[in-house]
Design brief:
Elements lengths: L5 H8 L5 E8 L9 E5 L3 E3 L2 E4 L2 E4 L6 E2 L4 E2 L3 E7 L23 E8 L11 E7 L4 E2 L3 E8 L1 H4 L1
Parallel strand pairs: 2-4
Antiparallel strand pairs: 1-2, 1-9, 3-4, 5-8, 6-7, 8-12, 9-10, 10-12, 11-12
Length: 154
């Protein structure tokens, strides 16, 4: 069960309907806290962390469980990012693939509300997992398939 910090709970309880997600996509050495690119629905700055407003759509979470055959699938979701000519630091987001390896690296998803600081606290984390190696991109978008760590713990 999720247990959010009191500041987030208070912000959401007080009628604040502006909850938002921030996503950290780690690359290369994903054990380094600085090796990530942050994305969200709009440009957001949290201290020294920048969350670029590149998210075109958050996909739904998919997982299956078959009690009779004792099988389950890994929970997964897809996030689609904007990939236009100047969307990320003067270039395409896909330009990062030449120097940064995202496949099989960690991702972390956090729920926040407007007016709160420090977006990436453990108490605001709602998901963690591994970025699938099936990264799809074209001139307009990049789609990451995010695999949930949940099956690892079950």
């Amino acid at each position: 069960m999720l247990s959010f910090d009191s500041r987030l709970t208070d912000a959401l309880t007080l009628g604040n309907t502006t909850a938002f997600f921030v996503l950290k996509l780690y690359y290369n050495d994903d054990t380094s806290a600085s090796n990530f690119i942050g994305v969200s629905d709009k440009h957001r700055v949290d201290g020294s962390d920048i969350y670029y407003g590149l998210v075109a759509s958050w996909g739904g979470l998919h997982q299956s469980l078959d009690f009779f055959n004792f099988t389950t699938s890994t929970g997964n979701t897809t996030v689609k990012l904007i990939n236009t000519e100047t969307c990320y630091e003067g270039g395409r987001f896909s330009d990062q693939f030449s120097t940064n390896n995202f496949a099989n690296r960690k991702w972390e998803l956090f729920l926040n509300a407007e007016g709160l600081s420090t977006f990436d606290t453990a108490a605001r984390m709602v998901g963690i997992g591994v970025i699938s190696g099936e990264i799809q991109y074209d001139q307009t978008s990049v789609s990451f398939s995010l695999l949930d760590y949940g099956s690892r713990y079950h």
